[in-house]
From TrEMBL:
One Pfam short name: Peptidase_M50B
Keywords, ordered alphabetically: Membrane, Transmembrane, Transmembrane helix
Superkingdom of origin: Bacteria
Keyword Transmembrane helix: yes
Annotated TM spans: 17-33, 85-108, 114-131, 138-155, 161-180, 208-230
Keyword Membrane assigned: yes
Name of the protein in question: M50 family metallopeptidase
InterPro entries linked to this entry: Peptidase_M50B-like
Amino acid sequence: MTDVWDEVTGTQPAPETWLVLAVAAVALLVVSVRPSWLIARNAVTIAHEGGHGLVALLTGRRLDGIRLHSDTSGLTVSRGKPTGIGMVLTAASGYTAPSLLGLFGAWLLTTGHITALLWGATALLLAMLIMIRNVYGALSVIVTGGLFFAVSWFTEPEVQSVFAYGVVWFLLLGGVRPVFELQAKRRYGGARDSDADQLQRLTHAPAVVWLLLFHAVSLCSLIGGARWLLGW
């Protein structure tokens, strides 16, 4: 048990800069190309709905369940006061969650805690699985969590390092695109019950203000995370 704990809390060397850049390029390609994005976006949805769920619990709301759908949409249902700061934070946490998770992951990687990142992600996915309320959602979380566990348990440190950097780059880059997608949908009259519109009803601040906040968080997280990952 001590050996396992030492492995989790210990540090591992970062890959060389050229490899970090190569992994970033692959992540950018996955996010930019529509066919790969339609598949990989499921991971962003997991982070999005997980953000809603976690903040709902932290603000004292009761989490009833999370559903993930094959069209990469999702739904998190919580109970509590329908207005107030808890509801506002819960609604605002979805589009910001992937980027903030990526930023936190980038900080962990700069401190060398690669194994801690992989095991922490596995634990979060396992906790989220308990709240999933549909089959597709359960399969998505199980496959994703199984991948993290397999890499952290069965592969060499070099493979774990590349995988961890790839995940963090994907979260940082993948957190940007959904906000632009939401903005485009709203421009053409769609997504009128989006998180930004819910926040408008809760706070009376225009939805565009919340879109700007989502953009600011995702872009600042990408810039800050990239500087950490590249050692700048």
